Amino acid sequence: MSTRALAFLGLLLTPALASAQTTSATSTYEQRGFVQIGGGAQSGSHTIASTSTFDIYGEQGSIAGTQDYGGGAIWNIGGGVKVWKNLVATLNYTRNSDTMDTAVLARVPHPLFLNRFREANQRVGGLKHTENAYHLAAMWMIPFGEDLVLGVGAGPSFVSVGHEFASSARIEESDAAPNFATVAIQDITFSRGEKTATTVNVGADLTYNLPFDLGEAGRVGATLGFRYAGGTVNLPGTTGNVDVKYGGVQFWGGLRVSF
Fold first, then answer.
1. How far is the C-alpha of 49 from the C-alpha of 68, rounded, in Å?
2. Pairing status of strand 87-109 against strand 117-144
3. Listed residue (108, 86, 81, 233) closest to 162, CA to CA
4. For residue 53, which of 44, 63, 45, 43 has the smallest C-alpha distance?
5. How many other C-beta atoms lie within 10 A of the C-beta of residue 148?
6. What residues contact 200, with CB distance under 8 A and at least 6 apart?
7. Distance, CA of 109 to CA of 113 (rounded, Å)
8. Sign of the C-alpha dihedral computed for residues 177, 180, 186 and 192 taken in this order
């Protein structure tokens, strides 16, 4: 888990928790639970470099792919159920996806001379990085009066990570004999690795009840939330496993119905 994320969370919550000890020490969270929906953004920027090799002209050539990906828009859907006093067990689902460009570099041996390589470059778009995460957490709810509730908590996250790699390409001689000075990259193929990773989430949310309700169905509130859940998963790449980073700091907002 990121030390910076924990430090940031501590700075974010310290004033609220200090106030809670004096103003809400005996306040009880009255709702039985809630459901919520919203969206926001996930931070983070990562780079992956992967390389595959091939044999040609009695030597070994290589194809390397470099990808930049990171955070972006997320969906957050979930809910919680009160289990004891102010303790609520929550489950939230988030989805984040990014479309990547891949810079492909081929190094191809010369057909007539040893240790003389030709290089070719090509940039390919449209590859996908996806993260589907389920965040379980034990949240301690701290009411501030009737309309404002702060929740803080932590728990495990289960993140299904998918990532597409440039796996192979056809190399074509683009310069005629006897020079064979240049080559071109043709017909790039791709592979996808997927795996579910387990990490730890820590977060907080603040909910303000709006001035209308749904009768017996509950009250509607506006919620702002913060969560950190991230790590590294080992995915099968082109010539072996590749460490792929996922997750990060998430900020989200939405509507909550408490009942």
1. 9
2. antiparallel
3. 233
4. 63
5. 14
6. 1, 154, 155, 156, 157, 229
7. 8
8. positive
The whole-angstrom separation of Cα 68 and Cα 127 is 11
Dig out the tokens for 215 from the structure. 């009768």
Per residue of the chain (259 residues), what is the pLDDT tens digit? Answer: 445 555 555 555 555 555 544 444 558 898 999 999 999 999 988 998 878 788 899 999 988 888 999 888 999 999 999 999 999 999 999 999 999 888 889 999 999 999 999 999 998 888 899 999 999 999 999 999 889 999 999 999 999 999 988 777 788 888 888 889 999 988 888 888 899 999 999 999 999 999 877 777 789 999 999 999 999 999 876 556 889 999 999 999 999 999 9
Q: Which of 166, 172, 186 is nearest to 108 (CA)?
A: 172
Q: Which residues pair with 215 in a beta bridge?
A: none
Q: Read off the amino acid at residue 116.
A: R
Stated pTM of the model? 0.82
Residue where the block lists tokens 């910076």: 4
Residue 17: partners with Cβ closer than 8 Å, 6 or more residues away: 142, 152
Which is it for the CA torsion 20, 25, 26, 29, positive or negative? positive
Q: 178 in helix, strand or coil?
A: coil
Q: Are 213 and 188 in contact (CB under 8 A)?
A: no
Strands 241-258 and 219-236, sheet pairing: antiparallel
Q: How many CA atoms lie within 13 A of 120 on its CB side?
A: 23
Q: What span, in angstroms and rounded, lies between the C-alpha atoms of 88 and 101?
A: 42
Amino acid at 19: S
